[in-house]
Amino acid sequence: MKKKLFVLVLIFLGCLFTTLTYAKVTLPEIISSNMVLQRNTKVSLWGWANAGEKISIRTSWLKETMHVTAANSGDWKIILQTTNSKKPQSAWINSNKQTIALTNILFGEVWLCSGQSNMEIPISGYMGQPVYGAQEAIADAANDNIRLFTVSNQASLTPQNKLGAYKEWQSASAASVKDFSGVAYFFGKHLQEVLGVPVGLIHSSWGGSLIEAWMSKESLGAIKHFDLNNVDLKRGNRFPTVLFNAMIHPLIPYTIKGAIWYQGEANISQPKLYKLLFPAMVSDWRARWGIGDFPFYYVQIAPFAYSKQNRMDDPDNAAFLREAQLQCLDIIPNSGMAVTLDIGTEHIIHPTDKKDVADRLLYNALNKTYGYKAIDYAGPMYDSMYNKNDGIYITFKNAEKGLYAFNKLDGFEIAGADKVFYPAEATIYQRKEVFVKSDKVINPVAVRYCWRSWTVGTLFDNFLLPASSFRTDNWDDAKQSE
Known about the structure:
Blueprint: H1 2-21, E1 36-38, E2 42-48, E3 54-59, E4 66-69, E5 75-81, E6 89-94, E7 99-115, H2 117-120, H3 134-139, E8 143-151, E9 166-172, H4 174-178, H5 182-195, E10 199-205, H6 217-221, H7 242-248, E11 258-262, H8 271-289, E12 296-299, H9 319-328, E13 335-338, H10 354-369, E14 381-388, E15 391-397, E16 403-404, E17 412-415, E18 420-423, E19 425-429, E20 433-437, E21 446-449, E22 460-461, E23 470-471, E24 479-480
Parallel strand pairs: 1-7, 7-10, 7-11, 8-10, 11-12, 12-13, 18-24
Antiparallel strand pairs: 2-5, 3-4, 3-6, 6-7, 8-9, 14-15, 15-20, 16-22, 17-18, 17-21, 19-20, 21-23
Helix pairs in contact: 5-10, 8-9
InterPro entries: SASA, SGNH_hydro_sf, SIAE
Keywords: Hydrolase
GO molecular function: sialate O-acetylesterase activity
């Protein structure tokens, strides 16, 4: 009898706990006053309440009051239509016992900004690692039409609905911009200036993170096996799925326009795997957001001396990862890539020039997403080659106005059938092709450009967008001349 009574008490306490958990209507952290909702589209509002709780949503921009009933799980979600109004808006979420007022809401362009440390590094920089233009950006930051939301570093073994730590929506100011992602802020600031509408930036990055950490269990598990037993979440940026669970999942399905991504340095040793993982991650994120193939623009990792050797035939030559990122352009629909071959730093993995990175991402967005077709967004891309005059001529796509070099071309190497590459002389031919030649290679068959971890790009198009490193061969056993 006592045992039966004990069980009944446990059941009662369990029901009481469930009731207390959703005694009030609660919202995800991303939905709050001062937020930016994607303009002129259908957006999701969601939260939690008691099972069967009737909830009404009234807004300043819609005539009708919307109604929704919480499911047995306590979840509720509703779709609202936004407008192009630039005026601050309000919304009131009502239940039988409470009213949540959301004020100072703006309609604008909402972008998710994610990746590892080159996305995470703030305007103020890291210790001894500055960001060019920081002082000017901070001094000129005050702008209520730019709103910032930051997800703090956190990890979880299972998908979370709530964020453990974050910085709530706030207007751009000297104080808020100083500690916000440099790439994300420069991207958003320029976008706001061009479009003349509010911009909301959601920043969720963690330095040193593997791409596997940003993938869901389902998407990663379809490609490779992984085990989360006995993991130390203090090093959560190195473990599969844990950042997706804690730093991306709680944001879904907040309606966004698109995403910008800067990551890859942590995966340089596995370029072939990255070529599988990256498109799978993007596809999975898009499926979970449920708003179609939203724009996804990313940064090709910058040159950096990952090893002292810096040899072309180094197994960890980062040029192979850059190549994998380049190839992903043909795999990921509605994507674009910012090339950074000209702005790396040899011994610091965080290039100081974050504004050019952001601008090159923005050029993709302006041309492909916002219809500014006059904006050039891609530098020269290797197209084909042909032999002539004891050398190799290289032709390019995305060079309609021709090719350019500030000084002489550098970084080209050429090989014969023995697959041994020698430094080569390269010149721009008729302003649209590159001629490559070496006296040490009589019958050349292949050319590589900037095929090292650390290198400096010297080839540009007429709008000064750099070419990616490239190779005309597909050899895995090529050698560098001694």
